[in-house]
């Protein structure tokens, strides 16, 4: 189950153009305004309670993160022992307060901040989807596509359904030497059904540095909250 972190504006139309929304429901001024004014209510108590309930039911969390500040919040939760799950996450580069802009500098900065044990998918919207997904494939990351994110061919000459978008990414993956996972392999990659007993195990499994121990000296690059 996907889970947002921190309460944010979610103006998903901020980086869209008139050509992006032409012929869609977003061309309706009332719907456009509703999406423009949308917010994500995801405060600390709400997030922790959802993680507790999902974990108790054996349901894995996939974190929807738009910026490093949200990634930092997840790390601190893991260090406190209130988020003992795999770091399966999506970088949601949709702008509008909810996420970074889908540019190369924001992308590489976020990728650099994710620890080695993280399972990272990249996400954006409209004509940004294909370039960002191609970079994800080349970087050894995972991709998301479909008509929720984009409805256009790259030259915007025609509409493009989800199946055709998937087929396009499969072709690009093969050309870049990346195999496409089957269902069993995807469950293993996403560590479905995997949970941890405490903060120490969570940090180790996800590739974070361990919590600092009492009396430790030196500059606290990583420290328990």
Unreliable spans: none
Strand content: 5-15%
The number of domains: 1
Extended strand count = 7
In terms of structural class, how would the helical and strand content be classed? Answer: alpha/beta
Number of helices: 9
Percentage of residues assigned to helices: 25-40%
Give the strand order, joined by hyphens, for the main sheet: 1-4-5-6-7
Specify the overall morphology.
globular
What is the CATH architecture descriptor? Alpha-Beta Barrel
In CATH terms, the superfamily is: Aldolase class I
Cα-atom radius of gyration: 19 Å
The SSE string, one letter per element, is EEHHEHEHEHEHEHHH
What is the top-level CATH class?
Alpha Beta
Q: Please summarize the sheet with the most strands.
A: 5 strands, parallel
Question: What's the average pLDDT?
Answer: 94
What's a quick, concise take on this entry?
The mean pLDDT is 94.
How would you explain this protein's 3D organization?
This protein is of the alpha/beta class. It contains nine helices and seven strands, in the order ββααβαβαβαβαβααα. It has one domain (2-206): Aldolase class I (TIM Barrel). Helix content is 39%, strand content 10%. The strands form two sheets. It has a five-stranded parallel β-sheet, with helices on one face. β4, α4 (68-80) and β5 form a beta-alpha-beta unit. α4 packs across α9.
Properties at a glance:
225 residues, TIM Barrel, alpha/beta, 9 helices, single chain, two-stranded antiparallel sheet, 39% helix, 5-stranded parallel beta sheet
